[in-house]
Amino acid sequence: MLTKLKTRIKRLFFPDIHYRLHRMPGSLKKLGTDYGGWIIPTDRLNEGSVCYLAGAGEDISFDVLVAGLFHCDVYIFDPTPRAKKHFERVVASASGGDPITLYGKHRYAIDEETARHLHFKEIGIWKKADQVRFFAPKDETHVSHSISNLQETESWFLATVERLSDIMRRNGHQRIDLLKLDIEGAEFEVIDTILEDKLPIGILCVEFHAGNGDLDPTRAAVKKLEDHGYAVVARENLDFTFVNLGLPNV
User: What is the pLDDT along the chain (250 residues), one digit of tens a residue?
Assistant: First the structure.
């Protein structure tokens, strides 16, 4: 009975997705809150790194820590108005504004130097340049909107989206050292564009979304990434961290 219970719990929190866990020789560390944080190999980032973090919401604890620890440029992408307001509040607090605390316990460790490395872009990352609908969550207190209408709602706003390769080209970036995709179901199409365009991504963090509990798209995306040289180095439920083994660390 106890063994069956443990198996059920494991399946609930760690759904059956086949992958090979790659053991990193360096340091893996979780940065940020329990909700908004990510596990990354910290020895693969430095002050020259370029980081694109898509999907901010109202928790940019990971974004702030990456900018603060590595003194590198962090580009945050989110077209949601509430996300932009939250970012502006956090940056304002760096120069003497009111301290901002998340979940009653996590206080943003941000100063003016860290704030200078943070760049907010009010656009979404998608498979092509367009104007698309972002559908609201059912719970109005939640912030995350989705192109795929994950929660099947009727409320939406219109926002600009662009293909990742076009954004990189405009910014003059040849490679991305850290890419985070927490984009509410749009990750599958964006991953396809990354592989189609052969974009050099060093670390790839993806939160996969299983619409209606369907894990098949996630299984297919993980396998596709592994087939293209991305190795899973960490996982928390459906948050996966990959490292591109074919891209030299700089």
Answer: 333 333 343 444 455 899 999 998 778 999 999 999 999 999 999 999 999 999 999 999 999 999 999 999 999 999 999 999 999 999 999 987 677 889 988 999 899 999 999 999 999 999 999 998 878 778 878 777 878 777 888 888 798 999 999 999 999 999 999 999 999 889 999 999 999 999 999 999 999 998 778 899 999 999 999 999 999 999 999 999 999 999 988 7
Evaluate whether residue 112 is within a structural domain. Answer: yes
Quick one: CA dihedral 143, 38, 180, 112, positive or negative?
A: positive
Q: Which two tokens stand for residue 26?
A: 């360096």
Q: Give the separation between CA 225 and CA 223, rounded to whole angstroms.
A: 5
At 113, which CATH number?
3.40.50.150
Three-state DSSP class for residue 145: coil
Q: Which helix (H) or strand (E) holds 181?
A: strand 176-181
